[in-house]
Amino acid sequence: MKNTDHSDNRRVDEEELPDPEQDVDGEYDGNSEYDGNGDLERAVWTALVTVEDPELPVSIVDLGLIYDVAVHDGDAEIDLTVTYSGCPGQEMIVDDAAGAVQAVDGIDNVSVTVVDSPQWSVDRITEHGREKLGEFGLAIPGETEHADPDCHN
Known about the structure:
Layout: H1 40-49, E1 66-72, E2 75-80, H2 90-102, E3 109-114, H3 127-135
Parallel strand pairs: 2-3
Antiparallel strand pairs: 1-2
């Protein structure tokens, strides 16, 4: 059963995620290492890692937009959020997430629900996401270390 209480607003456990640098080239073939014998939920997470935010060069997983993934009998249910209310990329994010998950071998139906509560915060960004944003030249509020030594609070 899917968790509908997202009140902890915690970051996703990166130890549980697929390595974003391994076998992820922006095109998910639906099979990779899963071939029907692997963990289908993990395959869904792998597919979601390939979906980038339309405005930032970071996956929606690394941004912490995914609140929950549930897979049962070929049906995938995804709860996700956006970075702010009225986000113009919301429809694109939902469509891209649904398309990536639908491409997973063994997934028959995909349901994506946009969750408004709890509100997204930068605390949900994974370490990998923080690194990618730093490479892009964006500082995360509250970060004490800066990629640019000339950058000060």
